[in-house]
Amino acid sequence: MAEQVRTFVMVKPDGVRRGLVGEVIGRIEAKGYSLAEIKLFTIDRGLAEEHYGEHAEKPFFGELVDFITSGPVVAMVVQGPDSVVSMRKIMGATNPIEAEPGSIRGDLATVITENIVHGSDSEESAAREIKLFFG
Q: For residue 3, what pLDDT is reported?
């Protein structure tokens, strides 16, 4: 049996607002991955700033924090073989214009600033984000 890797996936405020939580979870589960943990909540400013800390010196940092704290999110721990790489593929490129049709962003998002989902980009990031959001 393949190793069960855990990764972090979040439906951002735009995805929650648009009623796409079920669609996102459905795509994850249809691919054969399972949800180990899930919660709906609004991220506070401190957590948002810590989560996006690597972008702190970039000009878009404030806008990023403002957006992610603008409404509820659904944070999830997804597990399964090669889950980090697979979730990145399911989500599609960060810029929806470049995202493949069939991916979440390719099918459902229109602008890079509101692209429905976030997912860890490495196993190290996944461990950090899971700890940050789930303790």
A: 82
Percentage of the chain beyond pLDDT 70 is 99
What DSSP letter does each residue of the chain carry, written as one string?
----EEEEEEE-HHHHHTT-HHHHHHHHHHTT-EEEEEEEEPPPHHHHHHHTGGGTTSTTHHHHHHHHTSS-EEEEEEEETTHHHHHHHHH--SSTTTSPTTSHHHHH--BTTB-SEEE-SSHHHHHHHHHHHH-
pLDDT, position 47: 97
55 is catalytic: no
- Band of residue 1 on the pLDDT scale cut at 50, 70, 90: low
The model's pTM: 0.95
The catalytic residue among 80, 87, 118, 120 is 118
All structural domains of the chain, each given as residue ranges with its CATH number in brackets, are 5-134 (3.30.70.141)
Q: Which two tokens stand for residue 116?
A: 């429905």
